[in-house]
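Quick note —
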Amino acid sequence: MTTTSSRQTEKGSLAVLRRLLPFLLPYKRQFLLAGIALVMAAGATLAIPYAFKQMIDLGFGGAGTSSRDHIDLYFIALFGVACVLALATAARFYMVSWLGERVTADLRSAVYRHVVMQSPQFFETTQTGEVLSRLTTDTTLIQSLVGTSISMALRNALLFAGGLTMLFVTSIKLSSIILVLLAVVVLPIVFFGRRVRRLSRDSQDRVADASAMAGEILNAMPTVQAFTHEAEESRRFGASVEQAFRTAMQRIRARSLLTVVAILLVFGAIVFVLWLGAHAVIRGSMTGGELGQFILYAAIVAGAIGALSEVLGEAQRAAGAAERLLELLSVESPIQSAANPRPLPPRAANGAAVSLKNVTFHYPSRPQYASLSGLSLDIQPGETVAIVGPSGAGKTTLFQLLLRFYDPQQGAILLDGVDIRQLDLGTLRNAIGVVPQETVIFSANAIDNIRYGRADASDEEVIAAAKMAAAHEFIERLPEGYRSFLGERGVRLSGGQRQRIAIARALLKNPPLLLLDEATSALDAESERLVQGALEAAMMGRTTLVIAHRLATVQSADRIIVMEHGHIVETGTHASLVARGGLYASLAALQFSPGMATG
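Predicted structure written out below.
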């Protein structure tokens, strides 16, 4: 309860922006230079009303040569002040703009680096479109804050403080009256500022919702078009955009009201005080130059307050954006490398040994259902083990636990006798090659897609892996061969070609443990024959686990594990399991009976 309460208190104020300090502190020197330029620009601005007072009282109010000398001097001084103001303003603009761009780039990199380190559990509950919205829209708001708003706030705070001081120097009575009136003005500004911040957060959430929806649909366009849902998806996105628009308009109306209130109250107070000053000049208790100076300083103070209210609105929006980004940065992945990781034993010539000891696992999103329950299994180095069973039996879950995308709630998994939780994540995953059921092809050329398996591989090694995966021939036929761009998600390739690219990627890695999740599922009969031969050669010298629904592809495995409802129900060879007449025999009968397709 205490944590929740304190978090809500922080969200209710601009204190959340203080959490951005780690991204600002590395650039103290640049902030110092920007501060110097800022002080010089503010000082030059504050010097202008005093120069006007001198011109009015000593120049226009006098006569003769002395008067002309004074007026020439003060005009030269005024131009000198303008030169200082111009140079200081340009320097301030350059430095704060640099800071805005630099801090935003650092923040984007930090958020992205943090997100890609998250476990799959994070992506079960977070849409990628929302993450992208935070990386783009939200960081742009923070860029505006760092690159403009902070500088404007400091500049106008200096002008406000300096202007107010000079108002008291000019006339204590009038300044006291205007100070009381300005204090009354601040209250509605603060009240409306809080409402703007809440609406800004809501507005950014609605934009993220629309982005997430668009990303999901654009990645599934063939399915959308196959079911003729284009109009429906357009309507859904339009409704989401309209919701974002309505929320944004609430924010805009609130900011407009804030601006109206601030300007009316501030300038109303100033006009009233200036009316009193005009009467003081008429009575002779104040000179014309002093009133002119007072008017200019009052305008500077009023302008500073108006600008501060505007900056406050921007800061409120940026606070909402910062909240959302810092939420991402505060998420801790439950899967972490060991604090003092153990090394793996030297690689054996025939692959890795794998042991599962009484493993029980529930997905975080389905805690009431055990995907694996009390599973124990020992796999010897160099052994090829096929895992079969109906959908939902826990086959793919087993692979995810081996890769340590999740940790089991009970039991342990050993790789070459070492609990994988005691290994560095990089060490563990570098020891495992995987060909997933859903192939991922990146927006790059063929050679870079295969080299994803091992970044330091030479072109010759990449081509050798492609030949082993029966991918070399079709790659050579592409317009630019291995340098051909494959399109987003590999849209220029057939399903079988994408699968062979993925197999080549895994073979290039040359791991001691190979995981094949329906590795030949997307291949036609001829390609399957080629790849099956390549995989059999690749299995030499390594331990291989194969998930397959088509039993024809696993008949030659050293051992077949049959799973159902998270348990191992049968173990043996193809022949022994068929003879036993259990679940495997039933699956085999469905696939191998006359009239049924075997592929």
